[in-house]
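Exam prep: given the inputs below (a chain plus aspartic acid), describe the expected output before reading on.
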Amino acid sequence: MITRRHFLARSPLALALAGAGCQREQPTESMSTPTSQRPLIVSTWPFGKPANEQALATVRAGGSGLDAVVAGIGVAEADLSNSSVGAGGLPNAEGVVQLDACIMAGPGHRAGSVAALEGIGHPVAVARKVMESTPHVMLAGAGAKKFALENGFPEVDLRTPEATAKWREWQATRDGDPGHDTIALLVLMPDGNLYGGCSTSGLAFKLPGRVGDSPIIGSGLYVDNEVGAAGATGLGENVMRYCASFLIVELMRRGATPGEACAEAILRTARQDPKGIDLSINFIAIDKQGRWGAAGTGKGFAYAVTYPGYSEVLPSLALSDLKVKAVGGHLEATGD
Ligand code: ASP
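Solution:
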């Protein structure tokens, strides 16, 4: 058994954090703050806050953990001003909106997922249906849409005038940073069970059929009812090659706090990846004890934390601020 102290003592992150002036055994607020309040709900980006609050209201009204995930994420999916999730999402290179989503339930280690789903506004609800009413985990493309329609999900035209205008603009230049974001939402219920979900329109103007990390169990989302849960947002290609959410949960199993695990996963990726720290990836995590944390490669990743009596958007630890460099296969703080 590796204790947390043990983990930290040999972790390159511990060295980096020490070099950056962070105390190993006293994480800063953005690293981890435990709460005994339940449910604890943590999600990506400021648009996660109203989603969290809906999830909290759902639990207060007697809803289950899965109800909370679907209702919370449903707020972001229904928000037409959100150009990276659900009905307001930016389309692919051919002007078609293709949505990715997944859901996991800690009890029974169940999962459901849909990828490249067209014409359906609430993909996370379809993912739940896949989990609950099929022997499968993942449905993609035309099969996912057929399944959704057969199960009573209404067909909607997902192209908003705003998104179509942005796509036309992009077509003219094929240039600029194509936007992308995801809502990943994690819930620790009063009975100690963990749940999570993830939903996105993926990378704007992506190749038709491109699937990101968000519907991939272990990449965009992972829930382990013994340990904790993690979710991702950012450039999916840089998340899914490292099974990052699974890795974060496994790091927590070995003693890391949620914040440390998120940061360690980024540093491990940065150490191996030709792109170094320039990966545009961000993670949130919660553990079974009610601690939470987040980390991103750059500044600007904020996440929402909600529990009874508290709902805030917090800045995440930005790994680029740590000024780490690879030295002989290890990451070390540069000290400047
Ligand atoms: N991870 C999403 C994807 O690559 C996008 C994002 O969260 O920024 O599809």
